[in-house]
């Protein structure tokens, strides 16, 4: 068919541009005849979609960095994007992580 479909759960009433239109079209699509069943849930689909989002974000970051924030982009080159935060291996309560971030 040559069509690419990406599925992503978006919380309702989140004020995302054109989300209302997508809701209307999705509801119309539920009633189409001969709709094949899509196998796989968010657990299978999200990792690939997340990787695509980070790739697109990084390329946009670098593109914008050609004219704005040149020094920051030159230093980081977007390497910090998608890497786990410094506290990801700790099981500290949130307030402790917040305090440490404020001290840094």
* H/E topology pattern: HHHH
Discrete helix count? 4
Structural class: mainly alpha
DSSP helix fraction? 40-55%
Tell me the span between the first and last alpha carbons.
53 Å
Shape: extended
Low-pLDDT regions: none
Estimated radius of gyration: 20 Å
Question: Using DSSP, what is the number of strands?
Answer: 0
Question: Could you explain the architecture of this structure?
Answer:
- The chain has helices at 19-30, 42-65, 70-76, 94-103.
- It contains 4 helices and no strands.
- With 104 residues, it is mainly alpha-helical.
- Helices cover 51% and strands 0% of the residues.
- It has a domain at 41-103.
Characterize this entry briefly.
This protein is mainly alpha-helical and 104 residues long. It has helices at 19-30, 42-65, 70-76, 94-103. The radius of gyration is 20 Å and the shape is extended.
């Amino acid at each position: 068919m040559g069509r690419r479909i990406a599925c992503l759960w978006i919380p309702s009433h989140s004020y995302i541009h054109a989300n209302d239109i997508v809701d209307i079209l999705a509801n119309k699509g539920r009633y189409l005849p001969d709709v094949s069943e899509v196998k796989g849930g968010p657990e299978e689909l999200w990792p690939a979609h997340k990787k695509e989002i980070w790739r697109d974000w990084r390329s946009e970051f670098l593109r914008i960095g050609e004219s704005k924030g040149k020094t920051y982009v030159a230093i980081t080159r977007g390497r910090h994007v998608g890497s786990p935060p410094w506290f990801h291996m700790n099981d500290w309560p949130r307030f402790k992580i917040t305090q440490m971030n404020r001290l840094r």
